[in-house]
Design a protein that fits this description.
This protein is mainly α. The protein has one domain. The chain is built from 4 helices and no strands. The longest helix has 29 residues. It is elongated, with a radius of gyration of 21 Å.
């Protein structure tokens, strides 16, 4: 079994770059969750960060453990498959539930401006 010190330099640099890329993408998605104003804007950024960030980190994990254990390690593919399938489905379910709730309350999110939950009216507000 290979130790961390015996990992080739190219592999260590590639694993490090993939981990940095994945964590950066996840961080950017988290910033989108914090900075964007409405639910409909906020829901998209974390899902992209989670999916793309997770993919990079899983690639780094597969590469590292395949090289250190001298055999292909591919069980991370199952993790990636499950997260790639479930994240968009969860996004769609959350958005549909919120659309339903907003329309029951008499608000149409397609007619809002500036990301607020307040519907746009033709009359000027006092």
């Amino acid at each position: 079994m290979t130790t961390l010190h015996e990992l080739p330099l190219w592999a260590a640099l590639l694993v490090s770059a993939l981990i940095l890329l994945g964590s950066s993408l996840t961080f950017i998605g988290t910033l989108g969750l914090v900075r964007l104003r409405s639910f409909y804007e906020r829901v998209h950024a974390p899902t992209l960060g989670a999916t793309l960030g997770m993919g990079s980190i899983l690639l780094a994990s597969m590469l590292y453990f395949s090289l250190t254990q001298t055999r292909p390690v591919v069980h991370e593919l199952l993790i990636g498959l499950f997260l790639t399938v479930t994240t968009p489905i969860t996004l769609l379910m959350l958005v549909q539930a919120t659309l339903y709730r907003d329309r029951l309350r008499g608000r149409d999110p397609l007619e809002t401006q500036d990301g607020s939950d307040r519907p746009v009216t033709d009359a000027a507000e006092p």
